[in-house]
Write a structure and sequence with these properties.
Elements (H helix, E strand, L loop, with lengths): L10 E12 L9 E12 L3 E5 L6 H8 L7 E6 L2 E2 L5 H11 E5 L10 H6 L9 H14 L15 H13 L5 E5 L7 H16 L4 E4 L3 H4 L4 E6 L2 E7 L3
Parallel strand pairs: 3-8, 3-9, 6-7, 7-8
Antiparallel strand pairs: 1-2, 1-4, 4-5, 9-10
Helix pairs in contact: 4-5, 5-6
The protein binds adenosine-5'-triphosphate (ATP) and magnesium ion (MG).
């Protein structure tokens, strides 16, 4: 079965004909069409892998989905909110409340403990500090790091650092988690553990889109979206 048959469920992401052209004002030679008309929906509860060769536009698409980059054309709704016309303040609010990010390079604050890093994921929500800390502790328990709350990133393994980053992404219970190559810096065992964790979080209800170039890992996901040259060339949903 191809395409989405989940449209009767609440859509957390609706992309229509997204384009992203880099170097538009410069010479024709410097012009790169990174996204060439991407239309896609993600329903609540999905766990999707985004795959494709290097340079096919995966990171560009994740940045646009995450409101970290503005598309050149097309429209995007996150959890029903049309983000195409929002100003910077409104976009920051969408990022803070609707989206959790996980990156290949973890991007943890090296001077802070695990629990402080995760609590920072709630900084712009108005939740009081004590409650932020309590929720951060819960999130670290969820990712299996309940015994590493006060460790700093330098005192954690790569896989544990990525777990902290995942805890930071899920701590606010955003409707959508975006992860760009979360296992790219990990060995195969740590990668398998992270993928198992993503499956467990999805089982608990979290909607997740993961970029990976590891086709073996991607095969474990219920939906596989394939990109090439800035377009989606295949979109396969496994039978439940
Ligand atoms: N800021 C930018 N300026 C100009 N071109 C860019 C920029 N960012 C990305 N590109 C180009 O857009 C295309 C898509 O890049 P992107 O990073 O999305 O690929 P990717 O699929 O994530 O690749 P990888 O698997 O290597 O991470 C590439 O040709 C890249 O060179
Ligand atoms: Mg990339």
């Amino acid at each position: 079965m191809t395409g989405t048959n989940l449209d009767h469920r609440h859509l957390v992401l609706e992309a229509d004909d997204l384009t992203r052209v880099f170097g538009e004002g410069g010479t024709e030679a410097g012009r790169v069409v990174a996204l060439d008309g991407v239309s896609l929906t993600i329903a609540a509860g999905e766990l999707a892998a985004l795959v494709g060769p290097s340079g096919s536009g995966k990171s560009t698409l994740m940045h646009v989905f995450g409101c970290l980059d503005t598309p050149t054309g097309g429209t995007l709704k996150i959890n029903g909110i049309g983000v195409s016309l929002l100003d910077d303040n409104a976009l920051s609010a969408v990022r803070a409340h609707q989206i959790g990010f996980v990156f290949q390079q973890f991007f943890l604050n090296q001077t802070q403990t695990a629990i402080e890093n995760v609590a920072d994921g709630l900084l712009y929500t108005g939740i009081p500090r004590a409650e932020r800390t309590r929720r951060a502790s819960d999130a670290l328990q969820r990712v299996g790091l309940g015994d590493r709350l006060t460790h700093r990133p330098s005192e954690l393994s790569g896989g544990q650092r990525q777990r902290v980053a995942i805890a930071r992404a899920v701590v606010g219970n955003p409707p959508l988690i975006l992860a760009d190559e979360p296992t790219g810096n990990l060995d195969s065992q740590a990668s398998a553990d992270i993928v198992a964790l993503l499956h467990a979080l999805n089982y608990e209800g979290t909607t997740i889109v993961v970029v990976t170039h590891d086709l073996k890992l991607a095969a474990l996901f219920p939906r596989q979206i394939q990109m090439r040259d800035g377009s989606i060339v295949a979109d396969v949903v496994a039978q439940p």
